[in-house]
Amino acid sequence: MHTLPIDKIKTDFLSTITHCDVIVSAATGSGKSTCLPIWASNIGKVLVIEPRRIACTSLAEYLALKSGQPLGSKIGYAIRFETHFNEQSDVVFVTPGVALRWFFEDKLSQFSVVMLDEFHERRWDIDLMLALLKQHKKHRLIITSATLNTKKLTDYLDAKLLHSDGIMYPVEEVFFTSNSNEMPSKDQLSERTVDACSYALKQTQGDILVFLPGKAEIQAAAAAAKKLNKLVVSLYGGCAKQQQELALKTQTEQRIIFSTNVAETSLTIPNISCVIDSGLERRTHLRAEKTVLALDTISKDSAKQRLGRAGRTQQGLCIRLYGEYAPLISSTPPEILRENLTELVLAASCSSHGIDSLEFIEALPLKSKQASVAILTSIGAIDLQGKATDLGKRLYPLPIDIELAYLINSMPNNSLKQAMIDIAALLTVPAKVYQLPRQQTLIESLNLQLPNACDLELAIGVVRGQVTDLIIECDALREAIQFSELLRSAFDLPELKYAASFNHSDLVEAIAYAKPNSVYIKRQNRRGAFGNGTIEVIPAKDSRISAQCHAMLVLNTYALAGKGTKQAMTLATLNAPFSTTLINKLNLGEHTLSHAELIDDIIMVNSIYSYSGVQISEKKLIPQGPALLNACCELILNDTLFSPIGQNIKNAIKYHILYNQANNIIEDLPLPDIYIYNKLESLGVNEQQDLELIEPADLAYHEIDSWVISPFIEKHPLIVQLNDLVMGVEYHFNAKRITLHYKLGKRKDLPKRWELPTWSGFSICYKKASKTVQVR
To answer: Alpha-carbon distance 526 to 556, whole Å?
Structure first.
């Protein structure tokens, strides 16, 4: 009978699981994902949470086959849009999103055991699921991982650790680079990958597994590898079922399998004798409070996982497309430290007493948590105590981004709800659903069909099958249509084939009203960027937005990382033209008053209406109330009104400050404009005719008695004039020093001590430009 490395811990596992949570640390390929759920089903129904959809379905299919019963009977699974299980199923594999929604519905009451597989991937939804289960205390937990900080986890759960070494055959490492410190790079990746494949084919008879960062790189490398005349297989999230089967089942001919890191763990790919590691992956990051996907180098932990794929069943070879001493990070940071937490916070609010009631294995970053709480509070999804509102509970189960769900719910009528659903459906698909045509005739045809130069209108037309002159990704479109149908059902709206027509202008206005920060205005800079007051974006090349557009509505952005912050660029990919008139109508901008002036003895100010720092309109108006007082302050201080009282007030306050410094008095004194504002307010000025009742003397500054301040002023002038030389005076009372600053005059020789006021006990310096000399 064939045994697996995990079988060595079976007795310990069965004796432990009945009374204690278990953490199983076992090497990749040891059998933990297939054996542990079956063993645990002895004490009740088991829910297995798998981070990836491919692993979820393939593991369920494999165990169902071993059980001799059809899939969905004893063994089942549930992923988005697809379920195969029944009430009698002993083991059900699910993705984290499904598990969280089931927990929200009934706290997983049908299951006795919950197994969190591949926990080392540290997805935010797995971290949240563990925190919820720890708080709930109604399930026996199994946590598995190939690489894990087991002490941290055992302390967190007070669980027992079981370890299985597994079987690992020797794997030779070869580094395909001349520089031992060279980091992984995307430069000429396809060519370097195919060269490595050619080398590997000469070294091994087994199959070759190539790790690449994403679908685009896989497709490019797969096309270039056709000349090798081997079975080329592409494996990534969302790939065709046929490609999955070619990867997961032994074939009669030698294979080259191009895969994302979906093949690092969970999946058993037979007969792999060589791994080619690009050292790259696509990893999420937080930028401007939004999760973005960027190309990154892998961690040392991931490099070890990838190598392990070559040594499961035989001696292997691992070819690295980077240097042996490349400074990779030790481990990939958990998602909760590098992603937007809005969905996590809402899920916690729906399924517990709020985010702060949960204890996470890794503390949530305070700034990210607070930003997410602020967003959810602002849209009314959670209350001030952090609990989910009725709206939040309605939005949370929807399988889309919470802000998109909020936008759908905010649309004022059913036709606009349907339009927003179709936009959300397209945005939710990870892959690109369509590309604009390149032929000029097709572009002109598209412009005739959709004259608004609007990406939103185009997206809706694609989902509804109304636009055909495009390059369509059929699998991605099929998924978008599934999302649309699901959302329409959730909101009790007609099926997609009965989609209602909508008013384009009403849609744009309704979205802007619900989400004001989605409105961007063109900045006056060379980059042609648009801003919303928080971030700047540039319309993507494939956006239909016209170059003459002055403002736009943006519903999706894509961040391109640069070498520095200034070089980073955010592209707006799903946009609609937006009029500045609408900015005014929705009151999105702000009014500022500036430049007061007297016109025919009437005080006037400029009223500027701007959005995101860009001026939209300007007009003159007669100010009232606080605006009038501010205008008066400006005019008085520039000696246009009540001259010369403004200059007198400035001098009086300067001397008061100087007097306090001379006498070591600590006192907060008002700035001249604050003093004048308060004085006018106390005199009851609210309208312009009120100024007729005021004399300049009413505003004079008399905070120090004249008999005290007058001799001080005489003794401590702030300006000294010696014929053709004017100097400003700076006093340093504690240091007993005075500095004279040249202001104007043609005199070339230095001032003499006898020419100056009698400043007993002070040393005196004269400063002109950068030169300072002592006055004798």
So the answer is: 23
Cα gap 343→400, rounded to integer Å: 10
The answer to whether 534 and 515 are in contact (CB under 8 A) is no
3 state SS of 285: strand
Lowest mean pLDDT among 45-49, 92-96, 438-442, 693-697: 438-442
- What is the sign of the dihedral through the CA atoms of 467, 472, 478 and 484? negative
Q: Quote the mean pLDDT of the chain.
A: 91
Give 350's pLDDT tier (boundaries 50, 70, 90): very high
Take residue 535 and report the two structure tokens written for it: 């971030």
Confidence at 326, pLDDT banded by 50, 70, 90: very high
262, two tokens:
């979906």
What confidence tens digit (pLDDT) does each residue in 497-538 have? Answer: 999 999 999 999 999 999 999 999 998 776 789 999 888 899
Q: What letter represents residue 149's amino acid?
A: N
- Mean pLDDT computed over 560-580: 74
- φ, ψ (nearest 5 deg) of residue 132: -65, -45
Helix-, strand-, coil-residue percentages of the chain, each rounded to 5: 40, 25, 35
Q: Which residues in 61-84 are b (16+ Cβ under 10 Å) and which e?
A: bbbbeeeeeebbbbbbbbbeeeeb
Are 112 and 48 within 8 A, CB to CB? Answer: no
Q: Could you tell me the fold of the domain covering 5-164?
A: Rossmann fold (3.40.50)
Q: Residue with structure tokens 């959809």?
A: 53
In eight-state DSSP terms, residue 382 is B
User: Under DSSP, is residue 162 helix (H, G, I), strand (E, B) or coil?
Assistant: strand
Give the separation between CA 193 and CA 278, rounded to whole angstroms: 8
Q: Please tell me if the domain spanning 5-164 has the same topology as the one spanning 171-337.
A: yes
Distance, in Å, from the CA atom of 753 to the CA atom of 31, rounded to the nearest integer, reads 95
Residue-wise pLDDT for 374-400, tens only, equals 999 999 999 999 999 999 999 999 889
Largest CA distance in the chain: 113
- Judged against a pLDDT cut of 90, whether residue 249 lies above it is answered with no
Domain ranges of the chain: 5-164, 171-337, 356-484, 623-712, 717-774
Top-level class of domain 171-337: alpha beta
Identity of residue 182? E
Residue 319 backbone dihedrals phi, psi, to 5 degrees: -105, 120
Is residue 268's pLDDT more than 80? Answer: no
Q: Which amino acid is at 130?
A: L
Residue 417, amino acid: K
d(CA 261, CA 281): 7
Four-residue CA torsion sign, 197, 203, 207, 212 = negative
DSSP string for residues in 481-516: HHHHHHHHHHTT---GGGPPP--HHHHHHHHHHH-G
Alpha helices in 320-396 (DSSP H): 342-351, 366-378, 390-395
Give bridge partners of residue 8 from the DSSP assignment.
none
Which residue from 728, 730, 716 is spatially nearest to 760, judged by alpha carbons?
Answer: 716
- Residue in 762, 736, 765 with CA at minimum distance from that of residue 750: 765
CA distance 590 to 234: 53
